[in-house]
Design brief:
Layout: H1 3-8, H2 14-26, E1 30-37, H3 41-49, H4 52-65, E2 69-73, H5 81-93, E3 100-103, H6 107-116, E4 121-126, H7 130-143, E5 146-150, H8 162-178, E6 186-189, H9 200-218, E7 223-227, H10 238-255, E8 259-262, H11 267-280
Parallel strand pairs: 1-2, 1-8, 2-3, 3-4, 4-5, 5-6, 6-7, 7-8
Length: 290
């Protein structure tokens, strides 16, 4: 998405909904960089020392690599959560106008991040876990943001198949509506599991069916997001992992996935994403799109 398109998505209402509507208008799969992680020692050190430079360098690289949005995976931020999240959001938005996904289970950190936000922010996220329902949904209501809902049991466990995921989706949507939120605010993550799980490949094929079915099931155009990095988490040959990403990503695109959360520095995977978007785009195809 170019800068002019992002500018057209500004404004009180469009800042909440307009950006991801590009997916439905042009059938594009937006790319969300998941590289800002507190588990990265450089990022952790930068946060602890309040040094924005390493974070801003990574954000600039992410945008140059093709990111449409930046996920801020800060973890629980148990020490000074408000200050740390405010620092992260301000550091990123000082050098980029890309939308941000605030990814933390700490409600105090989430609130601080939303208060510091000056552009488009998405809450990442909530599930049927009672604590998440009580703490995250009210923030989406208060700040008028979009929010990602995970298809997980109230226990936090992953449903074993597509049918169970759809059952969870109905319950998740009911809780979402009970909180007074609008359909357009909901983004659903059907959960990609590690393919090395005992039935990981079967579950991930079911995930494709879930993505295709959600809009008909819930009665409106459902925005979806999926974490591609989950597919290859764990030990294993890196080259083979990249092959798996490059094969599964087109399946997600063909299923209608709205947003792919991925390592934006995996160049071959990003090239595949670009080819997917060139093929599924509603414009006349051109090789120059690649």
């Amino acid at each position: 998405m170019d800068l002019k398109e992002r500018e057209r998505c500004r404004g009180p209402k469009d800042a909440v909904y307009g950006w991801t509507q590009i997916h439905f208008k042009r059938k594009l799969m937006l790319l969300v960089a998941d590289n800002i992680r507190i588990t990265d020692k450089k990022i952790q050190h930068a946060v602890n020392e309040r040094d924005p430079e390493p974070i801003q360098k990574m954000v600039r690289r992410s945008e140059a690599a093709g990111a449409d949005a930046i996920d801020i995976n800060s973890g629980p931020l148990s020490r000074e959560p408000e200050k740390q999240m405010t620092f992260l959001v301000e550091a990123i938005q000082a050098v980029s106008d890309l939308p941000i996904l605030i990814d933390t289970a700490n409600p105090r950190a989430m609130k601080a991040g939303l208060e510091a936000n000056q552009n488009i922010a998405i809450i990442n996220g909530f599930s049927l876990e009672p604590e998440k329902l009580q703490q995250m949904l009210p923030l989406a209501k208060r700040f008028g943001t979009r929010i990602i809902g995970y298809l997980l049991y109230p226990s936090g466990h992953v449903p074993p198949d597509g049918s169970e995921r759809l059952t969870v989706a109905v319950a998740l949507y009911e809780a979402f509506r009970d909180a007074g939120l609008e359909n357009e605010q909901l983004i659903i993550d059907p959960i990609i599991v590690p393919v090395m799980w005992q039935n990981g490949n079967i579950q991930n094929m079911d995930t494709l069916s879930v993505i295709k079915t959600l809009s008909d099931l819930l009665g409106f155009d459902v925005t979806t997001i999926a974490g591609l990095s989950n597919l290859t988490s764990g030990q294993g040959d890196k080259a083979k992992k990249r092959i798996l990403e490059s094969v599964y990503l087109p399946m997600l695109a063909a299923s209608g996935l709205s947003m792919a959360l991925l390592d934006i520095f995996h160049k071959e995977t990003v090239k595949v994403a670009g080819a997917c978007n060139a093929l599924i785009n509603q414009k006349i195809f051109s090789l120059e799109e690649l």
